[in-house]
């Protein structure tokens, strides 16, 4: 039987690396030969980076990550390859910007940064150069340039990648874009003074949008102060854009207030989350449900919501009229939640650093399947990893009194259990 093409390529590549290593370690190697090893190794490293990025793009187009329960490819890459979040996002950005795309109608679309993609494929630009170019061309100043100007800037940046370090390229590129954008944003002299926030639900029942404006300086400052405190980059390698960081910060603030804040009463009672369930769905074990502000919940999303929330089930008849309104109950008693927090010290998923105040409680054995609300059936998870556990093949269990996570086979063929070293510094893997 013929050898698998990937296995064959791996074997040949390993043989070449072994030869290169032997040449570098040879006592007879000259200084020039050793310096040559460095340049050759860097060239090979860039070529391998390009292989990884192009493969990530292909996997994304096929939906292989989402089919395995991952909403974002960076999370899948972190689990599969052991990367930090910034490293995974760096590869995803490169894949999205330098590789061909498939349109909604199935047609092949050119890469967003074609010149950068060519320089990357040729080894003239490294992965960090690609990230810098994508960031520069995604800036507000670059977006104000004409299409022709942007294309010209991209070609110049790609051409300079072989000459400049990433830091030098960023400085040079920012100055170039600033020169082309001398006028800056156009003033809006006719705008009226307003303070408003408009919520719109998406027509496809998935999420929505917020549009706001606050001309009142004090009101805006109060909002900006809270969001700014939570939207700062986690570290120097946090590659999330400002818009994404601020959006996630706002969502976390609202979630925190709902869980812990003194929210004003609404309609004579404290606000809770209403889940609208059709009678026929309830009779068939609640296969779907609707939220107050729209959006249909899948069975997994409904189970996730019910893990740790004050939920009021509202049963609807065929015509949509309420037939029964359930009583709000808190699934996890406060004392038990404190016990889980004392044990897990935050999100228990390997590699996560979310503190207890930003987590939710997950029933390891679902409540609907008879899982008890007891310490040995509960685990703390942040919202991202709570969703991952519900929608992917990760398995959670309690062993020796501590939670551990068994990865899917595509992440780790041996499925070695993992624990969070941040909360259990003496345990990196559950051996």
Question: Can you walk me through this structure?
Answer:
With 431 residues, this protein is an alpha+beta fold. The chain has four domains: 21-180, no CATH class; 195-233 and 242-260, no CATH class; 273-330, no CATH class; 334-406, Orthogonal Bundle (DNA Binding (I), subunit A). The chain is 46% helix and 14% strand. The chain has 16 helices and 14 strands. It has helices spanning 5-25, 31-62, 64-67, 73-81, 85-98, 114-121, 127-137, 140-143, 147-160, 166-180, 217-231, 242-260, 279-283, 299-307, 334-344, 383-391, and strands at 101-102, 108-109, 195-201, 208-214, 273-278, 289-291, 296-297, 310-316, 322-325, 329-330, 360-363, 378-381, 395-399, 402-406. Strands 5, 6, 7, 8, 9 and 10 form a six-stranded mixed β-sheet that branches. The chain has a two-stranded antiparallel sheet with strand order 1-2. A two-stranded antiparallel sheet has the order 3-4. α7 (127-137) runs parallel beside α10 (166-180) and α11 packs across α12. The longest helix has 32 residues, at 31-62. The two termini are 37 Å apart. Pfam families: DUF222 (PF02720), HNH (PF01844). Residues 335-387 form the HNH nuclease domain. This is DUF222 domain-containing protein. Belongs to the Rv1128c/1148c/1588c/1702c/1945/3466 family.
